[in-house]
Amino acid sequence: xxxxxxxxxxxxxxxxxxxxxxxxxxxxxxxxxxxxxxxxxxxxxxxxxxxxxxxxxxxxxxxxxxxxxxxxxxxxxxxxxxxxxxxxxxxxxxxxxxxxxxxxxxxxxxxxxxxxxxxxxxxxxxxxxxxxxxxxxxxxxxxxxxxxxxxxxxxxxxxxxxxxxxxxxxxxxxxxxxxxxxxxxxxxxxxxxxxxxxxxxxxxxxxxxxxxxxxxxxxxxxxxxxxxxxxxxxxxxxxxxxxxxxxxxxxxxxxxxxxxxxxxxxxxxxxxxxxxxxxxxxxxxxxxxxxxxxxxxxxxxxxxxxxxxxxxxxxxxxx
Length: 319
Description:
Layout: E1 2-6, E2 13-18, E3 21-24, H1 25-28, H2 37-41, H3 44-47, E4 55-56, E5 62-63, E6 72-76, H4 80-85, E7 95-99, E8 104-105, E9 111-113, E10 120-121, E11 124-130, E12 146-153, E13 156-157, H5 158-163, H6 168-171, E14 177-185, H7 186-189, E15 196-201, E16 204-210, H8 218-225, E17 236-238, E18 260-265, E19 269-277, H9 284-292
Parallel strand pairs: 6-17, 8-14, 9-19
Antiparallel strand pairs: 1-2, 1-5, 1-14, 2-3, 3-4, 6-7, 10-13, 11-12, 11-17, 12-14, 15-16, 15-18, 18-19
């Protein structure tokens, strides 16, 4: 199943992506909660498994597929080559940091450059969505606590990240966690330990890796995090990024207004975000993009449609 949230910003509805459209879950189940903690805790994934109608067309804005998680836990330096490119030693244990929920962004929404930090960078990552509450979860049972997977761009303001002495602010600016394009449920992914990840900027390949290269795999991360941190349904674990980020290139590359970043993971799909100055955010241009459901380079309103007219369905992996 491919779970999505769609509609105007702040008014998203839960849905299922299917071959010929979107199943409107709110119409099929009027009492259904938004896709978040209550949704997963109350077992809605199994309740909606038989839903197939009513259908709405794909020409709508997609929001983040998770609403208001209690936390977004990220893993630093979790690919050997990424640690190496930054001149870091391989971590002896998972390096945890957080992004705040305000950073969550739709899979095709604009990313806004902050006013208080420069040197903004991209990081394609596999995001794990937690499906049920747990603490001191064993490695052997870790997958039982996963609802599904999504693509995340861990957008990072390097100036703030490195000058602050810790990463909280530089990782948590508004719009800095595009997520999606959907949550692909665990049963459709199977083994998440062999998924190709790529990131492009304006069509140029910047990152290419595979989750088989993770230093600490997903069961290890869940076991480690949950020793003394309770994981709640809807929580997000972003598992780290492969080599190829902009800051460690020679010369360094940073994002500027107009750049388009695409992050893709096998069997899940692609998220696509254009970079804007933050001053655009309160104004009419940004609001119009949210109101009409169209990304800046997507005047026909197809979520994730590429410039060559590729259909929306091409942005989603097919099971």
